[in-house]
């Protein structure tokens, strides 16, 4: 009698185990029809920079708000990003005063030759070199850049191969990164739809979309990155971006914070021109 | 006897016409079942990071059953992960063509496009 009881229990256990296994198998087979999976999408670089070991972020023609020195900040940011996220060695050099270079370049030859030059050092040497390019002479450039129209005439500087070749020779033929940066204040008013939590008549919380009129202000960032072959001075590639950010009119956000917030959005795109990047994300696999 | 023949012919016709679609449906169901096995195996190996094996399985699945939207979706994800973006786009588009109302496929495709458009030419938004 005593011997039979465990035998009975064990057969019951086996039966229960088998049922559990069957149920588990069934649950697996009939489990969710989807699975969220993390992926990393590799993006090939847009430029073949295998011929270069070094990169010179030379400087930018910058304008817009005076609260941020967009030339200096852009050079600093791109150099630091390239140091950590690309294979190229970053050249630490003085930032080129490209606006001055372009303005000198635009003066008629006799004015440039006869008049005394302002400033000294590397920047001024570059001005002399740039002024020798006949294609860009005799065109007046706005002294201050406030918007897109002001920045446009400066762009011919990037086609001045003689100037860029000279810069390339000076730094042993690196890849040169330059361009324009426009960082300007911006305001926009209008109706904005936002989700708002409300209590219904039964005291339950509900989220409903609400439209309200808002006065907002912020900034627009319009950079153009130009990649130049330091061996030839020729432009290899250029890309333009536009990003904007808006806050409530009452909110006080420093211009520099907004600048970095907008640049943060663009930096991966800038880097993807030079080196392969992996973009992380998730996707849903389906059965 | 002459009256019997038309009845026999008609009966054979009815039986055949009923049997043919049934057999086609049967083979489709078999193909889907086989493809589903490949898709599920592909999902298991992809979760372990074996994306090449997953691609092999899902390519087999779409070959066996070219109407299986989920298999095209999974294949597109694997291509995307491997950086084969043209193939990924085609596979997503095929998946959506087969199942246009599937919100998960659409969401995957939108995310893929966002990356692809952002990194390809014409940046000035």
The helix content of chain B is over 70%
List low-pLDDT spans of chain A: 1-9, 111-137
- The CATH architecture category of chain B equals Alpha Horseshoe
Low-confidence parts of chain B: 121-125
> What is the name of the CATH topology of chain B?
Serine Threonine Protein Phosphatase 5, Tetratricopeptide repeat
The end-to-end distance of chain B, rounded to whole angstroms, is 83 Å
CATH class of chain B: Mainly Alpha
Please tell me about this protein's structure.
The complex is a heterodimer of chains A (287) and B (125). In chain A, helix 2 (70-85) crosses helix 8 and helix 3 (98-106) packs parallel to helix 5 (122-131). Chain A has one domain (34-286). In chain A, a hairpin with a 5-residue loop joins strand 5 (205-229) and strand 6 (235-240). Chain A has 287 residues and is α/β, with parallel strands linked by helices. Chain A has eight helices and eight strands; from the N terminus they run H-E-E-H-E-H-H-H-H-H-E-E-E-E-H-E. In chain A, strands 2, 3, 4, 5, 6 and 7 form a six-stranded mixed beta sheet that branches. Chain A has a two-stranded antiparallel sheet with strand order 1-8. Chain A has helices at residues 4-29, 70-85, 98-106, 109-114, 122-131, 148-151, 161-170, 255-271; strands spanning 34-43, 54-64, 89-90, 175-199, 205-229, 235-240, 243-248, 277-286. Chain B is an all-alpha fold and 125 residues long. Chain B has a single domain, classed as Serine Threonine Protein Phosphatase 5, Tetratricopeptide repeat (Alpha Horseshoe). Chain B contains five helices and no strands. In chain B, helix 1 packs antiparallel against helix 2 (51-64), helix 1 packs parallel to helix 3 (69-81) and helix 3 (69-81) packs antiparallel against helix 4 (85-98). Chain B is elongated, with a radius of gyration of 22 Å. Mean pLDDT of chain B is 86; it is low at 121-125. Chain A binds chain B through residues 33-35, 37, 39-44, 46, 239-243, 269, 272, 277, 279, 281, 283-287, and chain B through 36, 39-40, 43, 46-47, 69-70, 73-74, 77, 80-83, 85, 102, 104-105, 107-108, 111-112, 115, 118-119, 123-125.
